[in-house]
Write a structure and sequence with these properties.
The protein is an alpha/beta fold. It is built from 11 helices and 10 strands. The N terminus is likely disordered.
Length: 363
């Protein structure tokens, strides 16, 4: 299992993380013991600040918004604006938003809590198939626990091969690509690099689609059926689409597959995009505007689902549950239902485990 109390910056590997070490055959007597070869599965999500105070949130946002995969403006233009203007104000607002959803019991963000739970359940599922031959860890692209720390922990446990599993159903350069960038940057620092396989986009995976559809059916069977299901995805600048990023198209296909599995009519589901940032033109329609349009068109009850997020986070628990809900209600809506992300649902974990098994084949 992955633990938060050890990272790549620790001076030494804790003895408890070293298992089944042995002397290599035909090695001289003074050769150091090595861990028995295993395979690792490293699940990765976006990241989170360590706390909700100004400095913690600023440090996190600086790392996130300095990533050229996320904001691709020239550094000479973007960095002064980011460091001197945006990060002088935005950490206060973001910190307030995080405090509204913070897991106070564990003193961490819900994203960190859920990703840990997913990792633990995935490890238990894979253990039934592979026993101790497969180790599971988790890391974050930004903040802690880091991808580098997770790779080093897996190496300390003897993992010479690692399946790198970004928890993004659709491929996007600001999500999947930057996570892969980071794991390969980690390899550049290692004397002995593990072999790496990266898990591709899995939005069309039958197990994932079944779990997604089941989460909708459960809500529809439990309460009055909404007139429209809004599938809200994190947005990207429109130029990403024209530059060849497949994310927008894969989001549209995710919605189509979900519509077919649920047997919905074309007017019972709509694709939208949220979390616009900066002055550039983004793909649309914008969720916050579309839900208001739906209310003004006479829809009194809608449901919103977020098929691009594997775990609930600030974009769902704060943006959808507050800003987007308020937009719908202010425009005349009467009932707003948010359908949670798949998180650590058993059917979701089973889907992730089957995807991991496919990538582990031959290893």
């Amino acid at each position: 299992m992955a633990h938060r109390d050890f990272d790549a910056t620790s001076p030494a590997t804790p003895p408890s993380t070293i298992e089944h070490r042995h002397q290599p055959s035909h090695a001289p007597s003074d050769h150091p013991e090595v861990a028995t070869a295993k395979v690792g599965v490293l699940v990765v999500n976006l990241g989170t600040p360590d706390a909700t105070d100004y400095r913690s949130v600023r440090r996190y946002l600086s790392e996130f918004l300095s990533d050229r995969r996320v904001v691709d403006y020239p550094r000479w233009l973007w960095q002064p604006l980011l460091q001197l203007v945006i990060l002088s104000r935005r950490p206060f607002a973001s910190g307030k938003a995080y405090r509204g959803i913070w897991n106070t019991e564990r003193d961490e963000s819900p994203l960190l809590t859920i990703t840990r739970q997913q990792s633990e359940k995935l490890a238990a599922d894979l253990h039934e198939t592979y026993g101790d031959r497969v180790e599971v860890a988790f890391g974050m692209r930004y903040g802690n626990p880091s991808i580098e720390g997770a790779v080093r922990r897996l190496q300390a446990k003897g993992c010479q091969r690692i399946v790198f599993f970004p928890l993004y159903p659709q491929y996007g350069s600001p999500t999947t690509a930057t996570a892969c960038d980071q794991v390969f940057r980690t390899l550049m620092k290692l004397k002995w690099q593990p072999s790496i396989r990266t898990v591709p986009a899995y939005f069309a995976d039958a197990g994932f689609q079944r779990a997604l559809a089941a989460s909708v059916r459960e809500v529809y069977e439990r309460e009055e059926r909404p007139s429209v299901l809004v599938a809200s995805y994190h947005g990207v600048p429109k130029r990403f689409l024209t530059d060849g990023d497949p994310y927008y198209c894969q989001c549209q296909k995710t919605t189509r597959l979900l519509k077919e599995r649920l047997g919905l009519a074309d007017d019972e589901i709509v694709t939208t995009f949220q979390s616009k940032f900066g002055p550039a033109e983004w793909v649309g329609p914008a969720t916050v505007d579309k839900v208001a349009d739906l209310a003004r068109a006479g829809h009194r009850h809608i449901a919103v689902i977020s098929p691009a997020f594997a775990a609930d986070c600030i974009e769902t628990l704060e943006e959808i549950e507050e800003e987007i809900r308020d937009s719908f209600m202010a425009a005349g809506g009467e009932r707003f239902t948010y359908i949670p992300c798949l998180n650590d649902r058993d059917d979701h974990i089973a889907a992730l485990a089957n995807i991991a098994r496919n990538e582990l084949a031959g290893w």
